[in-house]
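Write out the 3D structure for:
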Amino acid sequence: MQNNYFIKILSIILLLNISLFAYSQNIATYDNLTLNPNSVWYGSDNSGGFIDSGFFFPNSYTDYGGGMFAWYGFAYSNKTDTITAGYTNQFSAITGEGALNSAIYAVSYVYYDWMNNYQMKPNVVRFSNSSVISGFYATNSTYAYLSMLNGDGALAKKFGGTSGNDPDWLKLQIKGYRNGSMIDTVNCFLADFRFANNTQDYILKTWKWVDLSVLGNIDSLSFGLTSSDNGAYGMNTPGYFCMDNFNGTNPNVNINEINNKDIQVSIFPNPFVETLNIKCNKADCQLNLSIFDVNGREIKKLSNITHRLSINATEIQQGVYIVKISGNNFIHYQKIIKK
C-alpha cells in the first residue's frame, strides 16, 4: 500500500519534471570551496578545473608572464565589488554575493576563438552518469552589467543605444546532450531590450532561477553566450555570467493537491540543516505529516500538527525527501532537501 502511494507521489513529481535520482542529492553551492576574503580562483594552479559535489567545472589558464594571463571556463569567487567598471573587475557578481545570501559563486567566461574565425567556444560540464539536472541560479557579472548599462568605450555599446530603442540582448544558451546528441536548449536572457515598451527593458541584477529539468536525462551541458552587439572579433559584450546552486532546488515549485482551499501550509527553510518548520495559516489545524525518502520509505511521521511545529531533523541524513501533509480534506506534497 505504501509503495503504491509513493508511486502516486513520484508520478506527480515527474509530471513537474523534478529529478529525485542520480545527482539529485548533489548541489554545487561552491561554499565548500576554500577562498581567502575578497578573492577568486581562476585556474592559475593549472589544475584544469575544480570539483564541487561531484560536478567538474573545467578551466583553461595561460600565463604570459609579467602579470598577463588569459583564462576561460569556470572560476569561483567571493568578490563583492558592484561598482568598479571594466576588465579588472571581471570576477565580481553584480549582486555582490552568491544566491540565497551565500558567499561563494561561480563565474564563467565564454571564449571566442581567435584562431577559428572568432567562433564561440561554449563551456561544457560533463557528468559520469545520465541525470536530470534541476537547474541553477544565474546573474550578470559586474563587468558585463556595467558595460551593458553604460557602454564600454569604443568596444561595447550601451544597451538600448542613445534613444533607448535599440533592441539589444544578451542571451545565455544552455544545451543538454546525451551520448553526443543534443537533446534540447534552454535560453536565459541576461539582458533584453526588445520590448515595445521601454519600461520593460532590463539588465539582470538579481539571481534568477534557470530551470533545466525540461532537458530530461542528459550527460553533459554546454554554456554559451550570444549578444546583439558583435564586431569583427566576435561578441563585443563582455562574455561573462555568474552561477550558483547548480542542481539546487527550484524556488518556484511546490507540489500540491489541495481540496480545502482555506488551509495554507508553509514548510521552511528549504534546504534545511537541523530544524524544519511547519506552519499552518489556521490555529485549529489538525494535520498529519509524513516524510519519505526517494525510495518511498517513510522515515518520519507526526500526528495532530496544529498552528506551528518545529521538527528536530538532526537524525535525517543529507539528501532529497518528500513531505506529505494531510488532514481536513487537504493534501500537500513538497520536495525538501537536507544539507
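The chain has two domains: 2-11+254-338, 21-244.
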